[in-house]
Write a structure and sequence with these properties.
The complex is a heterodimer of chains A (about 400) and B (about 90). By secondary structure, chain A is α+β, with helices and mostly antiparallel strands. Chain A has 10 helices and 19 strands. With about 90 residues, chain B is mainly alpha-helical. Helices cover about 40% and strands about 10% of the residues of chain B. In chain B, a hairpin with a 4-residue loop joins β1 and β2. The chains are: A alpha+beta (about 400), B mainly alpha (about 90). The complex binds flavin-adenine dinucleotide (FAD).
C-alpha cells in the first residue's frame, strides 16, 4: 500500500496538518499514532491560547491562529460548544518595573498587527479583576481575545473533519523506524514489523520526534522537558481571564466546565531526549509550590479542592521555537514539532501554513526561518515573552 | 432498561446512553472515552465509573477486559480531593 503522505503522531500538530493537507488535495494521507489521538503532550496541556507575544513573527502567527480558533467550529463542522473555546482574555501580571516595561514593548508590537491589547495600571487591574491580589504587582497587560479551549475536542474535531476528507487514521500503531533509500524517504516500518510506504513522511511526534529522526541518522536538538499541572473540582464562574506571570511562571485558568487548571514550571527542569527516560510522575513539590502561588494571587481558591495532578512534556528546542519544514539531508522527510510549551496554540496556524508549504503554495506567514536545519547553522529565532 | 436513565458517571452526569453512543462513534477505549466525555475526570477520579465503562467496552467489543486497549497506568494524585488551604498551610510549614 502506498500513500502520498504518512504523518507520524496524533497530537494537535499531526491531526490538524492531516486535515489541512487533505483540504488542499494532498492525496492519500495516513496518520499513525502510537497510542490514541491526544495521547502525547496535547492531552496533558493547559490549552492556553494567547496572542500576547513579543516578536513580530510570533504575534503574526498567533493573530492568525486566534482567527482560526474563532472560526474553527464552522470550518470543522462541529458544534461551537464542543470545542469549549473560552475567550476570557489573558491577564499578564508584571512583578517589577522592568517586567512591566517589557510587557509594554510587547504590546506595541501587538498593536502593529491589529491586536487590541490593553496596558493596565494596578488600579485598573483591581477594578476590572477584583479577585486578583495585586500585592507586588506593577501593572499588567490584557488581551480579551486570548483564552483556552478543550485540547481533546479540538484534536478530535480536526480528526473527524480529516476523516470526512479521506484521511486514514490508525491508533495504537507505533512507528519503529523511518525507511529511506538513496537519501530519499520511502515510508515507515511499524513496531509489528510491517512496513507502509509513502512519497513523503511528516514527523509530528512531539518530544518523541528526536528518537524517530535518529533512526535515519538525523540529530535534532529537541528534548522533552517535564512540566506539571493540576485541576480542581468545578465551581461556578469566578475567574474570567487566564492569570499568568512570566517572571513567576504560574498560569491559572477556569474552564467553561468550572474546573480550575493551573501550572508552574519546575525550579530545576528535568529533560530527556530518549523516550525510555521520560518520566510522567507527579510531585508533592509541584503541588505545594503551586498551592502557595495560586492562593496568593487568587485567595478565593483556598476553599477549592484539588482533584488531580499530572505531568507532561514541553518539546523544547534551543531557541524555544518549532522545528518545521523539510530536512535537507533526506528528501521527502518533513518535521513539525518543538512547540516549546506553546504547541497547542500554534498548532492550527502551523498546520495551515505548513500544508501550503508542502503543497508548493505561497505561505501567508513564511515559516522558513523555523526550518529544522537552522540549529546546525546557528540561525536561531528570538522571543521575549515566554513562561518557564 | 432505558439506558438514558442509567447514570454511569455521577461526577459528570454521564449516562449509559452517552457511553454507548461515544463507543459507537469510535471513542472505543477507556483513555479516549475519558477525554471525549470527561468520564472519570471528576472528583472520584474514576473510582466509580471505570470498571462499569470497561465492562461495557468489553461487552460491545466482545473481548475480555485484558484484551482492551489500555495505556500504561500513570498515577495521578491526590487519591482524594484536598482543599488548597490545607496544601498552602503545608507549603508554609
Ligand atoms: C503541563 C503542560 C501545559 C501546557 N500548556 C500549554 C498551553 O497552555 N498552551 C499551549 O499552546 N501549549 C501548552 N503545552 C504544550 C503543548 O501541549 C504541546 O506543545 C503540544 O501539545 C504539542 O503537540 P504535538 O502534536 O506537536 O505533540 P504531541 O501532542 O506530543 O503529539 C505527538 C504524538 O506522537 C505520538 N507518537 C510518538 N512517537 C510515536 C511513534 N513512534 N509512532 C506513532 N506515534 C508516535 C505520541 O503518542 C503523541 O500522541 C503544555 C504542555 C504541558 C506538558
Amino acid at each position: 500500500m502506498t500513500y502520498d503522505i504518512i504523518i507520524v503522531g496524533g497530537g494537535i500538530q499531526g491531526v490538524a496538518t492531516a486535515y489541512e493537507l487533505a483540504k488542499r488535495g494532498a492525496g492519500k494521507i495516513l496518520l499513525l499514532e502510537k497510542t490514541f489521538l491526544t495521547g502525547g503532550s496535547t492531552g496533558s496541556c493547559a490549552a492556553g491560547i494567547r496572542a500576547q507575544f513579543g516578536s513580530p513573527f510570533n504575534v503574526k502567527l498567533m493573530a492568525r491562529s486566534l482567527e482560526i480558533f474563532e472560526n474553527m467550529a464552522k470550518e470543522l463542522e462541529c458544534d461551537n460548544d464542543y470545542l469549549e473555546l473560552w475567550q476570557g482574555g489573558y491577564l499578564v501580571l508584571a512583578y517589577s518595573e522592568a517586567e512591566f516595561e517589557g510587557l509594554k514593548r510587547n504590546v506595541e508590537v501587538q498593536h502593529t498587527y491589529g491586536l487590541k491589547t490593553n496596558v493596565l495600571s494596578v488600579e485598573e487591574v483591581k477594578k476590572a479583576f477584583p479577585r486578583v491580589n495585586v500585592e507586588g504587582v506593577y501593572g499588567a497587560t490584557y488581551h480579551d481575545r486570548d483564552g483556552h479551549a478543550d485540547p481533546f475536542h479540538v484534536t478530535f474535531a480536526y480528526a473527524e473533519a480529516g476523516k470526512r476528507l479521506g484521511v486514514e487514521i490508525r491508533e495504537w500503531t507505533p512507528v519503529d523506524t523511518l525507511l529511506t533509500e538513496n537519501g530519499k524517504i520511502t515510508g515507515v516500518r511499524l513496531q509489528d514489523g510491517s512496513s507502509v510506504y509513502a512519497e513523503r513522511v511528516l514527523v509530528c511526534a512531539g518530544a518523541w520526534t528526536t528518537s524517530l529522526l535518529k533512526t535515519v541518522g538525523i540529530d535534532l536538538p529537541l528534548w522533552g522537558e517535564k512540566h506539571e499541572i493540576l485541576i480542581t473540582e468545578p465551581w461556578e464562574r469566578l475567574l474570567g481571564p487566564m492569570v499568568i506571570s512570566f517572571s513567576r511562571g504560574y498560569y491559572i485558568q477556569q474552564r467553561p466546565h468550572g474546573s480550575f487548571i493551573m501550572g508552574i514550571p519546575p525550579e530545576d527542569p528535568r529533560h530527556w531526549y530518549r523516550p525510555d527516560e521520560f518520566d510522567f510522575s507527579s510531585s508533592i513539590d509541584f503541588l505545594l509550590r503551586m498551592s502557595s502561588e495560586a492562593t496568593n494571587v487568587l485567595p478565593f481558591l483556598k476553599g477549592v479542592n484539588v482533584v488531580r495532578q499530572w505531568a507532561g512534556l514541553y518539546e523544547m528546542t534551543p531557541d524555544h521555537h518549532h522545528a518545521i519544514g523539510p530536512l535537507e539531508d533526506i528528501s521527502g522527510l518533513w518535521v513539525a514539532a518543538g512547540g516549546s510549551g506553546h504547541g497547542f496554540m500554534f498548532g492550527p496556524v502551523m498546520a495551515e501554513q505548513l500544508s501550503k508549504w508542502m503543497m508548493g503554495e505561497p505561505m501567508d506567514i513564511d515559516l522558513r526561518p523555523l526550518s529544522p536545519d537552522r540549529f546546525k547553522k546557528g540561525a536561531l529565532v528570538i522571543e521575549p515573552a515566554v513562561v518557564g | 432498561m432505558d439506558d438514558n436513565k442509567v447514570i454511569i458517571c455521577r461526577c459528570e452526569d454521564i449516562t449509559l446512553h452517552d457511553v454507548r453512543g461515544a463507543i459507537e462513534d469510535g471513542y472505543d477505549s477507556w483513555d479516549k472515552l475519558k477525554r471525549y466525555l470527561r468520564i472519570g475526570m471528576g472528583p472520584c477520579g474514576g473510582k466509580t465509573c471505570r470498571l462499569l465503562v470497561l465492562r461495557e467496552l468489553s461487552a460491545i467489543k466482545g473481548k475480555p477486559l485484558s484484551a482492551l486497549y489500555l495505556r500504561e497506568n500513570v498515577i495521578r494524585p491526590p487519591l482524594r480531593s484536598i482543599p488548597f488551604k490545607a496544601l498552602e498551610k503545608e507549603a508554609h510549614l
